[in-house]
Fold this protein.
Amino acid sequence: MPLQNSPVPPLLVPELFAGSVDGKAVALYVLRNAHGMVACITNFGAKIQQLMVPDRDGRLDDVVLGYDSLDAVLGGAPSVGAFIGRYAGRIGHASFVLGGTRHALGVNNGPHCLHGGVKGSRLRVFDAVQNQPSSVEMRCVFTDGEEGFPGTLALRLKYSLTEANALVLDYEALALDKPTVASFTTHPFFNLDGASSGSILAHEVLISSSHYLACTEDLVATGEVSSVDGTPFDFRQAVVLHTRLPAMLPGYDDCYVIDRSNHATQAADPAFCARVTSANSGRVMEVWSTEPTLQFFTGLKPREPLAGGPGKRGQRYFQQHGLCLEPQGYPNAPNRPNFPTAEHLPGTPRHGRTVYKFSVR
C-alpha cells in the first residue's frame, strides 16, 4: 500500500524517449486536460507510458506500469502499454484459412501467433502528429504478407484526454487491396493505487459478462462459450481480487463476452464493460468499448517478474502488480466459424472506440 503523503511521481522526460528504431523517429507525446490529468504516450508501439489521475483527495498519481526512457521501453516487456495489432490474442497453431488459402503466421507463443506475431504493432514505430494539447494521432500500415497475414491494412489511431477525465482510443482500420483479418486492443497495466504500489489484489473488479471463452491449456480459444454461473469467473457483482486469488485460481488471463444486445464485432456506441475500484486511493476506472469481448489479465504467476528490465524509477514489476482490461474482437476467430467474423474487406473501414473513464469514490 502506498504512503498517503508520498511525493507525486515526476512526469516523464520527452528527451529520454527521443531516438530512432528501424530508421524511424521515436518521441514521447504528452497529453493534458484542464483538470491536471496527463497521459504520456510514445509512438514506439503506440505505448501508454504514464497516466496521471487524481485520487479522492485530488492528489495525482501514475496509474499505469511503464518505462521512463526509450532504452527502457526497448528492454522491457513488449506488451506493456501497447496498442495491439494486426491481431489481438492468440491464433491457434499460427495459421488460418481465408478464401480457401491457408496462411502461416509468425510463431511467437509456443506453436501459436500472439498479438500479431513476432513483430506486431507493439514493436513498430507509428507515424505520429500532435495538433492539440489533449490528443495525438498515430498511423501505421501492415503490408501484404507481413507476419504471414494477407492484404495491406492501414491503421489510424487517436488518443484523447477528455474534460471528464477519460482516456479515449479511437481507431480506423481499412483493408486496401485484398480481404484480411484483424482485431485490435490496448494493453495498459493499471494499478489504481499507483504504479509503484505493488499488488493489485486489493482492487475490486466488476465485469459486465455472463459468459467467457473456454481455452486450451495454452490459452487458445476453443470456440466454446461457457457460462460464468457458479464459477470463479463470475464478476457480475464486484469482487475484491484477494478473495479469489490465489485460493481459487492463481490468476486471470481470460476472455469475456460483454453483455449487450448486439454481439457483432462492431456496435454503434461503446457499451459498459468493466469497473475497477480502489478502496485505498478512492480511484474508480470504468471501461467502455465498441468491442465484443474483454480480456481480463492479472498474470498467472504472481512471483514472476515481467519480462525485461526495470520500469519507471527503477522499479521491478511483477505479475499482479497491474491488471489489464483489453477490449477486442474474438480471439482465434479465423479458426472458429461459430465466432463473429474477423474478416476485413477492402474499401470498408472498421472503426472502434475504447474509453477508460476515471472518477473517485
